[in-house]
């Protein structure tokens, strides 16, 4: 006989022993009298019978729960993922600005180094890293003087430790920027013009399905370079910024799923939002997972003592651009988390510290004259069209906190910014080493 049956038998025996034999009714007696005002004496007898039996049933139920339900629940808990087990948003991949032969995985909370990834072959160096979900990453590597790039994939465990690098099909192009969709199969690449073996390869944008190896390509002019690249969740929208020199920077969002009719021209960018701010050049941008908004930052202009940079958000549905925040210093690249709610930015202080405008509203760009539009690059399978930049109204920005890097002229600080509110927070640990870091990815 098993333990469950033993416990049930003991429970019923204990309940039976609590019953007084003198209280057991005869066959002709009623067990209870129903009365709207006062319960009859037999109702007390009923209660005396029900309570012990209820106690016995409760004991039996506890026995069943202890023997069956709790072990099953513990088994499910043992195999279920723990809360917060995903590394997304908790770990950052750091690429140093030196020889670039390794990547460092750091905890965002403590800045401590969790692991290091070294280049898989001698002579290769990391040039870019992309991730769509914060778990799977694609690393781009190159070799000096060679018009070719090598692609490798790795994953982070819930503790932030990476798997071994897995080689992906390479490309006979010099890849500048990469973006990976959340499905881990849609990869976007931006290449620059380069020559190899007497052949010149043009600068292009490409979107590749890693599962089917199908690819779409768009030609870009050879002058200038793509400074940032990002995909929405479905991979249907590709946002990129193109730097053609001072005063010639542009933000574009391309509909990658658009199919041109036979003999027709590939449609250009969905949003030609060139020079969205009159007070600086567009530097880097990132599109939200749902494809509704693009956040971008602009480099400051003017004297060093008054340099400020701005964080903008443009709605793809309306084309309306708003200023999220205005900050002191000179920014680096915008590195957003997978949910595109937070971003890391390296901010370099101006040569001469500017007074903190924390309690003053940032000046409105409406008083500045927008420079005259110039032709900007758009991806096309045919000769590059010349879109006219759309005008964007800028409301007077609200006062926003302004990071004020401390230290000597040219010192750098790493800032974590909420993209929704624009609120900044300095990451003070020296382990982040923003002055010796080329880029952050997460």
Brief summary:
The chain has 442 residues and is mostly beta strands. Helices cover 12% and strands 34% of the residues.
Report the biggest beta sheet as strand number plus sense, adding barrel if it closes.
Answer: 5 strands, antiparallel
CATH class of the largest domain: Mainly Beta
Query: What would CATH call the architecture of the largest domain?
Result: 6 Propeller
CATH fold type of the largest domain: Neuraminidase
CATH superfamily of the largest domain: TolB, C-terminal domain
The N- to C-terminal Cα distance equals 58 Å
In percent, how much strand structure appears in the residues? 25-35%
Average the pLDDT over all residues and give the rounded result.
74
Give the count of structural domains.
2
- Give the topology string: H per helix, E per strand: HHEEEEEEEEEEEEEEEEEEEEEEEEEE
Number of strands: 26
Structural class based on helices, strands and sheet pairing? mainly beta
**Would you identify the regions where 5 or more consecutive residues have pLDDT less than 50?**
21-41, 43-83, 260-270, 272-278, 352-378, 380-400
How are the elements arranged and paired?
Layout: H1 3-17, H2 41-79, E1 91-96, E2 102-107, E3 113-118, E4 125-131, E5 136-142, E6 149-155, E7 166-171, E8 174-180, E9 186-192, E10 194-196, E11 199-201, E12 204-209, E13 215-219, E14 225-231, E15 237-243, E16 249-255, E17 282-287, E18 293-298, E19 308-315, E20 321-328, E21 330-331, E22 335-336, E23 342-348, E24 412-418, E25 424-427, E26 437-441
Antiparallel strand pairs: 1-2, 1-26, 2-3, 4-5, 5-6, 6-7, 8-9, 9-12, 10-11, 12-13, 14-15, 15-16, 17-18, 18-19, 19-20, 21-23, 22-23, 23-24, 24-25
């Amino acid at each position: 006989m098993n333990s469950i049956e033993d416990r049930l038998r003991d429970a019923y025996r204990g309940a039976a022993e609590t019953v007084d034999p003198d209280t057991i009714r005869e066959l002709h007696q009623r067990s209870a009298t129903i009365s709207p005002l006062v319960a009859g004496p037999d109702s007390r007898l009923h209660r005396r019978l029900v309570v012990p039996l209820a106690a016995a049933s409760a004991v039996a139920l506890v026995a069943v729960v202890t023997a069956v339900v709790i072990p099953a629940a513990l088994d499910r808990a043992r195999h279920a993922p723990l809360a917060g087990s995903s590394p997304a948003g908790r770990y950052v991949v750091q690429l140093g600005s030196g020889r670039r032969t390794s990547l460092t995985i750091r905890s965002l909370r403590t800045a401590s180094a969790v692991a290091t990834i070294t280049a898989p072959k001698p002579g290769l160096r990391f040039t870019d890293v992309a991730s769509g979900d914060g778990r799977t990453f694609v690393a781009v590597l190159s070799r000096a003087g060679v018009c070719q790039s090598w692609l490798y994939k790795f994953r982070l465990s819930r503790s932030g430790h990476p798997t071994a690098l897995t080689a992906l099909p390479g490309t006979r192009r010099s890849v500048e920027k990469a973006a990976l969709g959340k499905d881990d199969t849609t990869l976007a690449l931006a290449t620059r013009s380069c020559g190899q073996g007497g052949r010149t390869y043009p600068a292009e944008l490409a979107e590749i399905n890693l599962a089917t190896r199908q690819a779409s390509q768009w030609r870009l002019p050879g002058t200038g370079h793509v400074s940032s690249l990002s995909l929405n969740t479905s991979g249907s929208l590709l946002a990129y910024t193109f730097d053609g020199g001072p005063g010639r920077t542009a933000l574009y969002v391309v509909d990658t799923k658009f199919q041109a009719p036979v003999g027709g021209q590939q449609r250009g960018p969905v949003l030609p939002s060139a020079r969205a701010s009159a007070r600086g050049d567009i530097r880097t941008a990132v599109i939200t997972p749902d494809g509704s908004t693009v956040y971008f930052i602009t480099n400051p202009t003017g004297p060093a003592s008054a340099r400020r940079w701005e964080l903008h958000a443009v709605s793809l549905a309306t084309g309306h651009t708003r200023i999220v925040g205005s900050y002191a210093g000179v920014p680096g690249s915008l590195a957003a988390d997978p949910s595109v709610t937070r971003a890391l930015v390296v901010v370099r202080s101006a040569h001469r510290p500017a007074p903190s405008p924390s309690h003053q509203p940032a000046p409105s760009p409406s008083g500045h004259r927008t420079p005259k539009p110039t032709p900007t690059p758009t991806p096309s399978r045919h000769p590059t069209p010349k879109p006219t930049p759309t005008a964007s109204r800028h409301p007077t920005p609200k006062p926003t906190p302004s990071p004020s890097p401390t230290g000597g002229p040219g010192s750098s600080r790493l800032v974590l910014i909420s993209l929704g509110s624009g609120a900044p927070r300095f990451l003070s640990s020296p382990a982040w080493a923003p002055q010796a870091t080329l880029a952050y990815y997460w």
